[in-house]
Amino acid sequence: MTAPTDTAAPADPDGDADRAAEARGFFDPTILPPPSVTTAAPNLPSPSPVLSPAAPSHVVSSTPPSQVAATPPTTTFGALPALDALAPATGPATRGPSALRRGVSWVILLALLAGLVVAGVYFGPRLLELSKAETNDAPRLPLAYPVPIADPAPVRSAAFTVTRASTAGEEVRYDANIDFESGISQVVVEHPSRPTIEIRAVFDDAVIRRIDQPTWYRTSRGTFPFDGATAPTLVPTLDALLPLQTRGAVTILNATEETLGAVLADDADSTTEVSAAVANEPLQRLRLEIPQARLAILHDAPPVAAIEASDAAADPTPQPEPGTEPATVADAGNTPAPAPDPLAAPPLIVLPVGTPDQNELAGGEPVTVDVWVDDTGIIRHLRTDSALGSETLTVRSTSTEPWVPVFPEESAVQPLTADALLALGE
Q1: First and final C-alpha spacing in the chain
Q2: Neighbours of 295 (CB within 10 A)
Q3: Facing residues of 165 across strands?
Q4: Contacts of 146 (CB under 8 A, 6+ apart)
Q5: pLDDT confidence bin for 55, thresholds 50/70/90
Q6: pLDDT at 336 over 70
Q7: How far is Cα 199 from Cα 225, in angstroms, rounded to an integer?
Q8: How many Å apart are CA 148 and CA 255, to the nearest integer?
Q9: What is the per-residue pLDDT for 423?
Q10: Residues 313, 402, 229: CA angle, nearest 5 degrees
Q11: What is the pLDDT of residue 237?
Q12: Ranges of H-type helices in 294-417
């Protein structure tokens, strides 16, 4: 029996060469198929050249030189894909819920704009007045009523200026000098569309003329401006204008310190002149907000009735009731003053000037009144807002002495005829 022996396979040089060539071809980039997606290399900044360490001299590249030269230098693998390829696919625009939301947003925006316009028209004038008060450079004072440092001197005569609104909406100016005890008065009336006239009255007689003519005309004293006026009405004090019972309903919006000269200088339409002493006297300005329900001028309460009522209340002599004995002088000093009725309504506020504008008062908003008070409590300047005609009262001077003007001679006075009356009113 013959024992098995290991027989080696015959050598195949050609097969080995084919397998080696196939292995080399797997790693050769020149024979690989092109990529299915061609992408451009990202536009990145060129890196700084880095020098690689020198290769050992005994290492020899196995790639033939011809194959290295034939490698495409621009072919890259592993580069970032283009941004366009990553963008999501967009479909046709829809006008469903998004269009509805845009429509609702526009409606809300238009409603807000309309509300701002309405608020500006309604609250704009009031905010403008408040902004002017806030931007005033005058020194600010506490929001409180000033306390007089002395009692005011008795007023026998006074010089003052009043501006009022006429029925045609024009501003009429009155410059007056009045002796309140004798009733002698002088009034110059300046009308924008009529001649300026001057009136001088004493007792029951009066003379009148055009300011640009020398001829006077005699007439009986009728109802001239400020006839029958008293010092408390035309030279009011703060306590007389706003008694303590009325101040709870009045709001002080602003309080500053100003001079009458600065006030008249700020008013471009004012031609009122005052002495230097009066112009430079420091005054306390109060901007007051008064409810319409507290104004006598809006409730058909004439100032004269209010003055007579206040004079009767100030009479220290008590009046006996019917069927009782009159009180003697000794008892009058011991009679206690009647206690004020807590349930009685406070008195109405009587303004010396003011012509109601029913269009502006229709909304029921409070009325704004500015007063300038000196250190004795006398109101030197008073100004109403447009709801009361924007009228003013300026007390130029006061005196304890009588005032007597120079009346014309009899030869310069003529009777008042119809022609003269027409000439005065032209």
Answers
A1: 170
A2: 22
A3: 171
A4: 238, 284, 286, 373, 375, 377
A5: very low
A6: no
A7: 9
A8: 16
A9: 77
A10: 45
A11: 93
A12: 303-314, 329-334, 358-361
Instruction: Decide: residue 176, CB within 10 A, 0-12 exposed, 13-18 middle, 19+ buried.
Output: buried
- The C-alpha atoms of residue 220 and residue 201 are separated, in whole angstroms, by 9
The three-class DSSP label of residue 270 is: coil
Note the residue count of the chain.
426
Q: What pLDDT score was predicted for residue 366?
A: 93
**Residue 316: strand, helix, or coil:** coil
For the segment 141-191, what is each residue's pLDDT rounded down to a tens digit?
788 898 888 888 899 999 999 998 777 778 899 999 999 988 888 999 998
Tokens of 342: 């807590």
Exposed/middle/buried for 276, CB within 10 Å: 0-12, 13-18, 19+? exposed
How does DSSP classify residue 243? -
Count CA within 13 A, CB hemisphere, residue 23.
Answer: 6
Contact at 8 Å (CB) between 382 and 354?
A: no
CA dist., res. 223 & res. 210, Å (int): 18
> By CB neighbour count within 10 A (0-12 exposed, 13-18 middle, 19+ buried), where does 241 fall?
buried
pLDDT score for 252: 93
- Residue 354, pLDDT > 50, answer yes
Phi, then psi, of 329 in degrees rounded to 5 = -65, -35
Using one digit for the tens of pLDDT, what is the confidence trace for 32-50? 555 554 555 555 555 555 4
Please give the helix or strand (H or E) that residue 273 lies within, else none. none
Between the alpha carbon of residue 291 and those of residues 112, 288, 297, 298, 363, the distances in Å are 32, 10, 12, 11, 12
Query: Does 274 score more than 80 pLDDT?
Result: no
In order, the DSSP letters of 335-348 are SPPPPPPTTSPPPP
pTM above 0.85, yes or no: no
Query: What CA–CA distances, in Å, run from 57 to 53, 54, 60?
Result: 12, 9, 8
| Contact (CB, 8 A) for 187 and 226 | yes
Tokens 């002493």 sit on residue: 277
Q: Is the CB of residue 378 less than 8 Å from the CB of residue 149? A: no
How many whole angstroms separate alpha carbon 148 and alpha carbon 225? 31
Q: Is-contact 334 343, C-beta < 8 A?
A: no
Positive or negative, the CA dihedral 9, 11, 14, 18 is: positive
CA–CA separation, 424 and 426 (whole Å): 6
Average pLDDT, the chain: 74
